[in-house]
Structures are given as C-alpha cells and as structure tokens.
Amino acid sequence: MGSSGNFSVVTSHRPLRVTITSSGADKGSLSARDLPQIDEEGQVVQGSGSPSAETLLHLAVIRWCEAGSVLHTHSVWSTLLSKAYAREGGISIEGYEMLKGLEGITTHEHCEWLPIFENSQDVPRLSERVA
Prior knowledge:
alpha+beta; two-stranded antiparallel sheet
C-alpha cells in the first residue's frame, strides 16, 4: 500500500471494535503501536496513537455492509476509474472470477456495484453521505 491510504480490521461487531492505522503512520513500516483499537464512535479503547483521519468513513462502510475490513487506497487506477465513472455515480464490476471472493457470491456472472462519492475534506459530512 505504500504510504498512501489506510486500513481497518473489525475485531468485534458487538460491541463494535476496530483496529485501524494511526493517522500519519508510514504504511510501509507499521508496528503494533501504529494500530490503535477504536469503538463505534472512533474513540481509542486500546493502544495509542490517533486513528486515521478517515476513521468516520471506515465506520460508515463497516456499519453499512457489516464489513470485516476496509482497505482505503489512493492508487492511480482507483483514482482514474473514479474520475471516469463519477457521472454514473459508480462502477459495475461483472464477469470476473474474483467476484467469487465476496461473501455469498458463487459465480462470476454476478454484478457488483461500487458507488463513487465526490471527494471532500469534510470527512464527517462525507461519512454521512456514504452512510
């Protein structure tokens, strides 16, 4: 992932506990101290460090689809695809074997819709739109 982007992993859904990368941590050399555990409000309940600036976005996705993890990247390809499909509000992925890696999907004939949201530095407001 390099130094761009962040990730979170759900360690419990009830109560919600999420291990997330610390804000500003170099993702290429993470250690346990860079992975605080947060609650459903984004407050650190174990470990230290400041949770990712995009914590509210991660929590919105986790709540929306009961995700077990969130990988948030800023790759060139995802940025280009987002720009190319922004008018449509998302991108449809279908016909790929990798879709069977999604929970409950047993065929490549499945169609998965990935919504695209306009970027904003107002993370709380963006998180509300995502939710």
